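Our working data are protein records whose layout never changes between entries. Instead of coordinates, the fold is spelled out as a row of discrete tokens. Here is such a record, shown just as it appears in the course material:
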Amino acid sequence: MEVESPNQIMNNELVPVEDTQSMETEMQLDLLEPEANHLEELTPIIVEAQPTKRRKKKSVVWEHFTIETVAAGCRRAYCKQCKQSFAYSTGNKVAGTSHLKRHIAKGTCPVVLRNQERNNQSTPYSAPPKMSSFTDTPKRRYRTASVPYLSFDADRCRHEIARMIIMHDYPLHMVEHPGFMAFVQNLQPRFDMVSFNTVQGDCVATYLREKASIQRVIEGVPGRICLTLDLWPSSRTVGYMFVSGQFIDSEWKMHRKLLNVVMEPYPESATAFSHSVAACLSDWNMDGKLFSVTINQPLNDAATDNMRALLSVKNPLVLDGQLLVGNCLARSLSKIFEDAVISVDGLVKMIRDSVKYVKTSESREEKFIELKQQLQVPSSKTLAIDDQTRWNTTYEMLLAAWELKEVFSCLDTMDPDYKGTPTEENWKQVEILCNYLKPLFDTANLLTTAGSPTTNTFFHEAWKIQLELARAASSEDPFVSTLTKSMQENFDKYWKSSCFILAIAVVMDPRFKLKLVEFSFSKIYGDDSASYVKIVDDGIHELFHEYIALPLPLTPAYTEVVNGQSAKPEDPQGIGSNSLGLSDFDVYMMETTSQLSKSELDQYLEESLLPRVHEFDVVGWWKVNRMKYPTLSKMACDILSIPVCTVPARNVFDTVRKEMDSYRCSLRPETVEALICAKDWLQTETAEAPTAPVKVEVPI
């Protein structure tokens, strides 16, 4: 068979690719075995014939579509299943295949949907994780590895909607909002939008799943659990008590979990706080595990008596209910800061107005920066208008303005519109104000650090603040005494209610023990310090004796930690010591063991102090020394986990108390608790980092 010349092929009338496949096949067969005298013609024939060839269609859509010519220069794609037609090409314009892929991926073909519902199985038309497995470029299209189509999972979608509402505080009614319903319908037409009641049930189900995992953690806690109470008011006069738990687990890691949100119909009553504690203990089955309670506000005498009575019943062997912290440190610092600012309100307003003058105009801010560079002011601070709901921003504004006071003074001479510039005396007062606010700011910053700082950390900060404010309040400088008088009065209330717990916590720090208590009390109380030190010493010894009397271990996990082995099984034969008439021997062993165990605390206190080092992990130290101090290490973990703050880190600097919004007040109390607690658990399940290792090699 002779090979046709290029001219003959070019002169033929072009036909669609589907009709030329047989001709191309014949040409390819002839070219497989060409005669020798035709070799010179082969290359030009192939090159010239190439424009008439159409590449074989490789897209997955052509497994489900055919192309038919409906008019001159117009072709359409037809679905093989439902026969629905789609635009494909008109003249030289090709519509592409994206709309054909959507027809496949969204599963809107009625024939396929009926077959799928009948067989109850997934089909190639089910929605894939991505719209297609192709990457298009302007020049060429490459097919990637084949990705199987996954079936649409309505239950998974419902789970994710519930999780989204919980994590972002969206209203439950959003699932009935027309805009959201239209968005979901366009995203996946096969998803039947859930109702308010359905999504409420899904959110509660998510809460219950997470609660079960938290319950397992709490059941495995070898020691005791400390609670914090934070009362939120509402516009409906009911209160919501946020009850959180803090504890050290069997791996010696600190945890803080929101446990309950209890609606209190009468939040001002004397029983509101004690009722919430009792409800939490009952809900989580924590009877016998309560160690201390920290409250976000001072209690009146009746409420304090009710709380101490509850503590005496729930943990009678722990100092008879004395471990009650009546003030939240974050709330106390916020109140003290507010009082200080109010006492010098005119001065703070003057600085704020100067900062606003610069920051509210781009030209003035540029001029200010230029002056700073010309004056070569070494400060790295930048001006910012404060947010009066966050007191740290006010402190940072004052500090930045003071460091840039030279620039403000120069601006006064260069800008005639700048009025009310602070005087030299004003700047001196700002410096004094910042000096007394800095300890408050530094202490509050400790509350915002990652993880939960141990209780001993705050004794150092608290006693220094107490000492400095006491000295300043008696200052002969009228500005200093006026400024610090109210600050000292408010902090003194916190110190009196919390110093005992802070002191016994610092005794559990092997770098300080009782020595720092003796030193700091001598500075604060002078000649009367010995009596206050004795209160702490007696309290720590009494608590240790009570721990000796406790039935140990509280959990099987503690047995493994102390003895390095699992608990022994019960004696099936009943051949115990009592059956052999050795009950008196048991009493003798308890008495002698108590005598020996008492020396654990005394031995610890008599040993030399550890060198002070950076980033010392006090809990890690007790973990390392748990074999040497089996009882004392357990007591130390409980003491070091006492929280001094009732609010989360993000709210430490708030000047306005949190209030429950009206929407959540309209929901059932059980739903409110489920939404808020589940959010806390979901946010912290991956955020808890391991405790830093003990570092004892580099003394300060």
User: Anything to note?
Assistant: The first helix runs from residue 6 to 11. DSSP finds 26 helices and eleven strands in the chain. The two ends are 98 Å apart (CA to CA).
